[in-house]
From TrEMBL:
<feature type="domain" description="SusD-like N-terminal">
    <location>
        <begin position="87"/>
        <end position="228"/>
    </location>
</feature>
<dbReference type="InterPro" id="IPR033985">
    <property type="entry name" value="SusD-like_N"/>
</dbReference>
<comment type="similarity">
    <text>Belongs to the SusD family.</text>
</comment>
<keyword id="KW-0998">Cell outer membrane</keyword>
<dbReference type="InterPro" id="IPR011990">
    <property type="entry name" value="TPR-like_helical_dom_sf"/>
</dbReference>
<dbReference type="InterPro" id="IPR012944">
    <property type="entry name" value="SusD_RagB_dom"/>
</dbReference>
<dbReference type="Pfam" id="PF14322">
    <property type="entry name" value="SusD-like_3"/>
</dbReference>
<keyword id="KW-0472">Membrane</keyword>
<feature type="region of interest" description="Disordered">
    <location>
        <begin position="499"/>
        <end position="520"/>
    </location>
</feature>
<dbReference type="Pfam" id="PF07980">
    <property type="entry name" value="SusD_RagB"/>
</dbReference>
<feature type="domain" description="RagB/SusD">
    <location>
        <begin position="339"/>
        <end position="517"/>
    </location>
</feature>
<dbReference type="GO" id="GO:0009279">
    <property type="term" value="C:cell outer membrane"/>
</dbReference>
<protein>
    <submittedName>
        <fullName>RagB/SusD family nutrient uptake outer membrane protein</fullName>
    </submittedName>
</protein>
<keyword id="KW-0732">Signal</keyword>
Length: 520
């Protein structure tokens, strides 16, 4: 099993849904489960493991469903302009594509609630686990480090989406002074994120963890990504944080160079979406899925009413690539090659039958052939594919971008960019042909092409204040760029999402609303 390991699957299934401290025990002489509370639950190491499983389980909340033909994760894809929809039944999703969303949009409330539920779980664990005794210190330190990594991940998402957000680090009850918290300055939030990731980095985690738990590589890679973001907008820390990002990413690159069997790029793009390669090599951190608990949430990328899986024509297609973005890939780029890269233009009837033309490009990056079927493969019908959060390809591009900002392109930065392009079967111009500006845009382009449809592009748009132009292959300013999926321009207000209206109604301390959005 790839779901987080306790003593058996039953424990995971039970503990993964516990929010405030009910737990799983082995012996009949312990307190009856109905009497468990946060005060008497955190007493043995198994409780700490169960609580950590619950935090990991909550990483899935921001990927869950958001109404018909839609999922919460689509909030980060629809406004990018590189995807569109074939369905149109979900009004909230349509508003996201059309750049007319507001605080009442369901995806936004779901994303907020998912992140803060994870934060609440992590805070409770971090508050109670230190007092558990007896417990091996190494085990305790590791669990606390993993919880801090997950809390940092949640706060990093929140501060990028909404700017100033409530900064809660202790368990809350209705009697808590900050039960109705106000928003903390974004820099304070980033300071906590960095602190948490440094503690995770020092927690004795393995370099990689094939079970899907946080690792040294995950903590270092996430920290590099945070520094890169802090260097750009809105904090604009500049050169100091580009250097921090470059140095931290290079730690991972150096380890990978010395241990290519542990961290590396996959040899093929098909390996990016195989169950057999999850949590290994290129996949530095993933959100874990297993159909017994929760199936992969990316099936809204299937074509609408085209028989590409065992179940025949299906009603999905609510995130598909725009033809303009697909056509903007360089000639010969393997990532755009049918069924070999990140897209497909033909498939096999009902997964295993005769090949047919889809009539348009669709996203293959999250397509699970083990589940859906392929020639010679009997479909399992259980989509257990994990969702990638950090791939080694991104670490290489973080290093290339950050190092270039420090001192212009050097050979290590050039090699990092070239490694990503080599897998795509593309020729990279000689290093001497680049200056700092041209190398910067070359790396940005590779981020758009390599990391598309992984809920990363929107964050790049916000931190860079730039958007890829499919026609010129250059970059427009964020404000005024016209998204081809809606023919509407991005506005200043879109740099932040609106705070969810239900949260603001419940908590007046969240006022005012982010600029440009209606109060209620």
């Amino acid at each position: 099993m790839k779901i987080y390991k306790l003593r058996n699957l039953t424990k995971v299934l039970l503990c993964g849904v516990l929010l405030l401290g009910a737990g799983c025990k082995d012996h009949l002489d312990e307190a009856p489960p109905s009497n468990l509370t946060p005060d008497n639950f955190y007493t043995i190491p198994d409780h700490a493991e169960a609580a950590l499983a619950a935090v990991y389980a909550d990483t899935r909340l921001v990927y869950d469903g958001s109404g018909i033909f839609s999922s919460t994760w689509q909030m980060l894809e629809a406004p990018t302009g590189i995807s569109t929809t074939e369905t149109g039944q979900n009004s909230d999703l349509n508003n996201l594509y059309g750049l007319i969303y507001d605080g009442n949009t369901g995806h936004i409330a779901n994303y907020w609630n998912g992140l803060y539920r994870l934060i609440a779980q992590a805070n409770l664990l971090l508050d109670r686990v230190p007092a558990i005794t007896p417990m091996e210190e190494a085990q305790k330190k590791k669990i606390l480090g993993e919880a801090k990594f997950l809390r940092a991940w949640a706060y990093f998402r929140a501060v990028q989406l909404w700017g100033d957000v409530p900064l809660i680090t202790k368990p809350q009850t209705i009697e808590s002074e900050d039960f109705l918290p106000s928003r903390a300055p974004k820099e304070e939030v980033y300071n906590l994120i960095v602190e948490d990731l440094k503690e995770a980095e020092a927690a004795g985690l393995p370099w990689m963890d094939a079970t899907g738990r946080a690792s040294q590589a995950a903590a270092k890679s996430m920290l590099a990504k945070v520094y890169l973001t802090m260097a750009g907008f809105p904090l604009q820390k500049g050169a100091s944080h580009y250097k921090l990002a470059a140095d931290k990413a290079f730690e991972v690159v150096s380890y990978a160079n010395a241990n290519p069997g542990t961290i590396n790029l996959f040899p093929t793009y098909l390996d990016v979406h195989k169950e057999s390669t999850e949590n290994r090599l290129e996949h530095i951190f993933m959100i874990q899925y297993n159909n017994l608990v929760a199936g992969n949430p990316m099936e809204n990328m299937y074509p609408n009413f085209k028989p590409v899986t065992y179940s025949g024509p299906g009603g999905t297609g609510s995130t598909i690539p725009t033809v303009a973005f697909y056509n903007s890939y360089e000639s010969g780029d393997l990532r755009a090659k049918n069924q070999e890269g990140y897209f497909y233009t033909t498939y096999f009837t009902n997964g295993t039958g005769a090949e047919f033309n889809l009539g348009a490009p669709y996203i293959f990056k999250h397509f699970n052939q083990i589940s859906a079927g392929a020639p010679g493969l009997t479909p399992t019908r259980n989509n257990n594919l994990n969702v990638p959060v950090i791939r080694y390809a991104e670490v290489l591009l973080i290093y290339a971008e950050a190092q270039n900002e420090v001192s212009g392109p050097n050979m290590e930065a050039y090699n990092a960019l070239k490694k990503v392009r080599d897998r795509a079967k593309l020729t990279t111009p000689d290093m001497g042909t680049f200056n700092q500006t041209s190398f910067r845009e070359a790396v940005w382009r590779e981020r758009w092409y390599e990391l598309a449809y992984e809920q990363i592009t929107w964050f790049d748009m916000v931190r860079l204040r730039k958007v890829f132009n499919e026609d010129t292959k250059g970059f427009d300013n964020f404000v005024g760029h016209v998204n081809k999926n809606s023919n509407k321009p991005l506005q200043e207000k879109h740099l932040l999402f609106p705070l969810p209206t239900p949260e603001r109604r419940n908590n007046p301390n969240l006022s005012p609303q982010n600029p440009g959005y209606p109060e209620f």
